[in-house]
Amino acid sequence: GSFGIVIHGGAGTILKKNMSDSLETAYREKLTEAISRGHEILAAGGSSMDAVTATINIMEDSPLFNAGKGAVFTHDQTNELDASVMDGASLNAGAISGVTRIKNPIDLARAVMDKSEHVMLSGVGAEQFAEEQGFALVDPSYFYTKRRFESLQRIKERETTELDHDDKTAFVDPFIKESKFG
Amino acid sequence: TVGCVALDKSGNLAAGTSTGGMTNKRYNRIGDAPIIGAGTYANNASCAVSSTGWGEYFIRAMVAHDIAVLMEYKGMSIQEAAQEVIQKKVPALGGDGGIVAIDRGGNIAMEFNTAGMYRAHMNKEGSLTVKIYK
Question: Would you please indicate which residues of B are annotated as catalytic (active-site) residues?
Fold first, then answer.
């Protein structure tokens, strides 16, 4: 049977002129690593859900993307993570929102789908469920990255809310070639 | 935000999305990523979809489910359905962003209305496509 896999790492004002060669290479390499992992699982006859979660784990563990380790900061200087999964065969689904101590949120969303009667859990309750399921909780400082923290500081100065990867956020990226941007 | 959709050898589809949310967000604001039907949807009868974009608009437009039901009820291809929602419906509401999707035949869509989207596709033969810009 046919099989295939597609991934994204976020959309926005991502322009070549604003991207250093080294950063572009880093993104391409990480996307390749992630999708290859999922393809490996599918080629070996593994399930699409296993491929999806293993692939997303790699992107969650990379500071390049706004998920897991590379998460952006809230106004209160915390990292609040959300995730969801859905299985096309059973139409079962799992989702979590607003967690601050789960290293790989997609795995917790899958646990909600597979090991609870619920579809969506949030905040402290979701983390209580995680502990009952044997998830190790990480210290919130695990999610700190200088790049994202500095983005927040600059945005706070302008007191606007931005989507990840948009032009203003991209400008504050230390890899950005154009020094004229703040 | 990151996401993945996959079709396995048994013909089953799955979708997943994970995000750190929005910089400087307040009031426990939640975007589309954890909302089934907006940021994530999968149905063997149509397709699997993962979204990334301005969450409020992707929730209002129920983007992921919309693409799936345009295929299921109106017989659109995955590319037609993705374009209809991402290039017409979402901008009409004022939002922006993109999706990746795959159907039971292994056909895919990587549709976005922003300047760029980090994205990659690998098919059964292992042929790899990695793109960033439009």
Answer: 1
